[in-house]
């Protein structure tokens, strides 16, 4: 095998220009895969982080049936304000915070303007950690669980024509079916990654929400973990410790609630599959063409080798090894260049316009992961090896007499 590798390397070195072109084709194909895939990986990471740290958390705990029927009768699915389960969840390994949220809808008024809203009562202290990417753009965040304050999305504040310090009136249906209202001071405006959410959302301290709704408890307990990768394992453990039949609790991972994120990942993943196929096809055609030309030019040489006793399978192995070497060297070159470019581009940043459904642009990066880089290298080596099969087979099938006559 060592002799085959050495001979294959010398054969490639004999025609350095052609080998350089083949290596460049493979290398820049890998670079394209690393950069394009890394940018998509960064988008997934940014969307995932924004979804978790501005709205959903890692895990949500609700009453069984709340996600299916809670919109029609939300007060039938309230979780208790304090319970042994809540305390146990706060002590679970890997859990940073568990914070309650109660959802409600109604009308918000200021002067002659009245618009509908979707509101949440939250625990201000915990939400500063759980909702890191809910960014206060003006004013300040909620200060206390019972303060008569409200923060609202920039779009909602703009539609209502209010500024920081104005007083607004919230009007909602209570748990008993009546109507209740409260005056609150607008202390801040926020923005998230989703413009539609900012156009209708507001938050109040959970104590104010209880008073307004005349109900205690919460619709959701939102859990934030110290590591996103622990989510599946933790959910299995919690479902085992708190079976739904006994506690009535349902543990929902953030992926189950993030419909927009899931569909975006599916769309971009299919697009990357097409890109991988196109780049792989380019490499296959380029390497096949080069090796076929090599066989034609070296027909007499191959005939001489077989006349001296070299077996056909040895010829097959030699030609295949030449293609495999091209794939390994070209893939390694592409990975090195791609990683270097990715680090440099990430240091500078990629200015991007506001995505659909958002008002804010962002600076993109190239996010490198081991599966991405390894996958690009393996793809290059694999398709190059496949491209070498036909030329190698063709070389091994040459008739010795005809191959020797080719030199004349």
Name some characteristics of this structure.
408 residues, alpha+beta, six-stranded mixed barrel
Show the helix and strand layout.
Elements: H1 2-14, H2 16-56, E1 59-63, H3 66-69, H4 84-90, E2 95-110, E3 113-122, H5 124-130, E4 135-139, E5 149-153, H6 154-160, E6 167-173, E7 179-191, H7 195-198, E8 201-205, H8 206-213, E9 220-225, H9 231-241, H10 244-247, E10 249-253, H11 254-257, H12 259-297, H13 299-307, H14 312-348, E11 350-352, E12 362-364, H15 370-396, H16 400-405
Parallel strand pairs: 3-8, 5-7
Antiparallel strand pairs: 1-9, 1-10, 2-3, 2-6, 2-9, 4-7, 5-8, 6-7, 11-12
Summarize the structure in short.
The chain has 408 residues and is α+β, with helices and mostly antiparallel strands. Helix content is 56%, strand content 20%.
Summarize the amount of helix as a percent range: 55-70%
Number of DSSP strand runs: 12
Enumerate the spans where pLDDT stays under 50 for 5 or more consecutive residues: none
Radius of gyration: 31 Å
The proportion of strand residues reads: 15-25%
Spatial ordering of strands, largest sheet? 2-3-8-5-7-6
Shape: elongated
Question: What would the average pLDDT be, to the nearest integer?
Answer: 83
Report, as a whole number of angstroms, the end-to-end distance.
32 Å
The class by helix and strand makeup works out as alpha+beta
Give a verbal description of the structure:
By secondary structure, the protein is an alpha+beta fold. The chain folds into two domains: 2-51 and 261-405, no CATH class; 65-247, no CATH class. It has 16 helices and twelve strands. The protein has helices spanning 2-14, 16-56, 66-69, 84-90, 124-130, 154-160, 195-198, 206-213, 231-241, 244-247, 254-257, 259-297, 299-307, 312-348, 370-396, 400-405, and strands at 59-63, 95-110, 113-122, 135-139, 149-153, 167-173, 179-191, 201-205, 220-225, 249-253, 350-352, 362-364. The chain has a six-stranded mixed β-barrel with strand order 2-3-8-5-7-6, surrounded by four helices. A two-stranded antiparallel sheet has the order 11-12. The longest helix has 41 residues, at 16-56.
């Amino acid at each position: 095998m060592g002799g085959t590798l050495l001979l294959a390397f010398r054969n490639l070195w004999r025609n350095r220009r052609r080998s350089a072109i083949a290596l460049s084709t493979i290398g820049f194909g890998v670079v394209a895969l690393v950069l394009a895939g890394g940018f998509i990986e960064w988008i997934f990471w940014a969307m995932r982080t924004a979804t978790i740290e501005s709205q959903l958390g890692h895990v949500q705990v609700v009453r069984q049936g709340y996600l299916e029927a809670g919109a029609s009768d939300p007060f039938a699915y309230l979780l208790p304000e304090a319970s042994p389960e809540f305390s146990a969840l706060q002590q679970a390994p890997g859990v940073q915070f568990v914070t309650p949220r109660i959802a409600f809808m109604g009308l918000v008024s200021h002067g002659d303007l009245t618009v509908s809203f979707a509101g949440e009562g939250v625990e201000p202290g915990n939400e500063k950690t759980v909702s890191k990417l809910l960014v206060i753009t003006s004013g300040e965040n909620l200060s206390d669980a019972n303060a008569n304050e409200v923060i609202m999305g920039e779009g909602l504040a703009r539609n209502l024509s209010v500024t920081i310090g104005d007083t607004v009136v919230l009007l909602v249906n209570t748990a008993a079916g009546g109507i209740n209202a409260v005056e609150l001071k607008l202390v801040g405006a926020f923005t998230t990654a989703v413009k539609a959410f900012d156009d209708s959302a507001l938050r109040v301290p959970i104590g104010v929400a209880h008073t307004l709704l005349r109900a205690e408890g919460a619709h959701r307990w939102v859990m934030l973990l110290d590591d996103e990768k622990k989510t599946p394992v933790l959910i299995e453990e919690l479902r085992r410790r708190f079976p739904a039949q006994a506690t009535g609790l349902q543990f929902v991972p953030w992926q189950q609630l993030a419909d927009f994120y899931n569909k975006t990942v599916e769309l971009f993943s299919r697009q990357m599959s097409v890109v991988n196929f196109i780049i792989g096809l380019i490499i296959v055609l380029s390497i096949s063409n080069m090796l076929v030309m090599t066989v034609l030019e070296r027909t007499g040489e191959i005939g001489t080798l077989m006349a001296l006793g070299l077996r056909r399978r040895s010829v097959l192995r030699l030609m295949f090894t030449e293609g495999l070497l091209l794939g390994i060297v070209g893939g390694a070159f592409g990975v090195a260049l791609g990683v270097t470019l990715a680090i440099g581009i990430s240091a500078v940043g990629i200015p991007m316009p506001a995505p659909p459904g958002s008002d804010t642009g962002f600076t993109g990066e190239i996010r490198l992961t081991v599966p991405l880089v390894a996958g690009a290298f393996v793809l290059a080596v694999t398709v190059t090896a496949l491209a070498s099969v036909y030329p190698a087979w063709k070389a091994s099938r040459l008739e010795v007499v005809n191959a020797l006559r080719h030199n004349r």
